[in-house]
Amino acid sequence: MKTEPDRKADLIPVATAGTLSGLFRERVARTPDLTAYRQFDEIRGHWSSLTWGEMAERVGCWQRALSNLTLAPGARVAVQLRNCVEWVGYEQAALALGLVVVPLYPNDSPGNIAYILADSGSQALFVGSLNQWRMLESWRSAFPELRQVICLEDAACADARFEPAPNVVCAADWLTREGSVPADHDADPSDLATLVYTSGTTGRPKGVMLSHRNILWNAAAQLETVPTYHDDILLSFLPLSHAFERTLGYYLPMMAGSCVVYARSLQTLGEDLMTIRPTALISVPRVYEKAYVRIQAKLAQEGRIARALFRKAVAIGWRRFLAGQGRAADLGFADRILWRLLRPLVADKVLARLGGRLRIAISGAAPLSEPVARCFIGLGLNLLEGYGLTEASPTIAGNRTEDNVPGSAGLPIPGAEVRFAANGELLARSPGVMLGYWKRPEETRQAVDPDGWLHTGDIAEMREGRIYIRGRIKDILVMSSGEKLAAGDLERIITADPLFDQALVVGEGKPFVTALLVLEPEAWKSLARELSSDPADPRTLQERRVKRVVIERLAHLLRDFPAHAQIRRVQLLLTPWTVDHGLVTPTMKVKREEVLQRYKTEVDALYAGHAIAM
User: Fold this and answer.
1) Using omega within 30 degrees of 0 as the cis cutoff, is the peptide bond preceding 498 cis?
2) Share of the chain above pLDDT 90, in %
3) What is d(CA 92, CA 104) in angstroms, rounded to the nearest whole number?
4) For position 230, what pLDDT does the model report?
5) How do the domains of the chain map onto residue ranges?
6) pLDDT, position 272
7) CATH class of the region 479-610
8) What are phi and psi of 331, to 5 degrees?
9) Residue 94 Ramachandran class (φ > 0 left, ψ -120 to 50 alpha, else beta)
10) One-character DSSP codes across 467-501
11) Rounded to an integer, what distance in angstroms lies between the CA atom of residue 23 and that of residue 217?
12) CATH class of the region 12-187
């Protein structure tokens, strides 16, 4: 078994890699026979693997095919594909040719995709399915620079009636396996590598320009805080089009030589966790929160003894965690005995649903609810929260295994500096800060000042060297009384309750706080039956006694918040806010302005008469 120094020797330094394509070449040269990627083969019905050496052959095929387009270095090529080895093969080939990759969310709207293709001037597009391209065809005039469309799906198999245009080809037919692989472009680490369009909770997305050095530096800094090795197995399910997954779930494992397994879908994530049994997991808070809600819902159906045992296990596990962090005394004899009993009886059974051998789990892209973190950590999961944004490539701060304070974003990663503006905005400076926004010099100057400080747009504070995020500047609601409210803090507490699937707190310029609440269907049915109401009747959601019960429940959840933050009116909904409806981002963040616009009539009704409705 390798020692710690031996395992660290497998890591590829930034200087050795030079560029992102250089990192791939170096990994192939060092460990050609190690398993690099696994994914499910739908045709054969089993999981298939590729070594680094085999992956290099696949990248060579893509490199030969892309070179036939004779695109000049710096030309943009887009990819709208779910996570898979073909995504990696296409990108690595493009980077080796000096091209700039534009990742697109697989389930983004055609209008938004068309805008990004036009804004970036992309000349090639790799899509996963024929249907994705068909949905874009009506927007074709918006992006005239596009020359080639490659479809992973075999068009003939998908629809025998389909007659592809000359510039639409099936990947299997287009890839050439003959001839030599073109020489790699001699890229500089400071060259533009990718345009990552922010999913944006407001306004049109902006193309964040990230260099090879930006991403490599960030991945290396993360490896210093979260050691990862070539014997780790990471299950990847967040979109590779998101900077969080791209750096931590793609380039960091490549730097360490770890194996990445691509989950089949979010719907099958539970099954894939049990099958793959990963040692590392990267996710957004919503996934952990939904798992927490399912646990709470299951406990509600079980007896008092089961609930009591669960609460006891979490409480003892939490004290055990604090003792291990040096922030509390060691467990007493009775608690140690109880933990030996409760761990296999309670904790291990929950963690088994995550595969049973997770060494580390990371949460990022948004703050994680503290009760959720406390629950999983109490059960023994090494759950670390971090903070960053696309413009920083993306990580700025993170907790460490040996210094983990749930509820905080942790310490700045090595090499990153932070400070605070007069209004409490967090500023950051590091080699990971973007080159700028694509074709938006004025907005770039607003985001990055002359001294290189990135204005994050987040209100934060620092205590004992750790960063605590208090919300987006745009999400700080100023009530008509002058009181200020961090809407995100309330929304995280609310959605940790099994009854509430989604929440949006309203109060900007208003005399009191209200909320739009999307109810979890099964929890709603249970509550309606308790109240002897018909859950299938939409009018039940408007009953005063139902709303009274919900408001009382909210008051209990928000009991630690000041009086002006208490929610006094609610609009109850059953239709979830989705990406398809344009109401959440692909990383499941609610688009505040879009939701408020969509439900303007309902919000106006909440404030009609300025009286407390009960």
Assistant:
1) no
2) 62
3) 16
4) 87
5) 12-187, 479-610
6) 94
7) alpha beta
8) -60, 145
9) alpha
10) EEEEEEGGGEEE-TTS-EEEHHHHHHHHHTSTTEE
11) 12
12) alpha beta
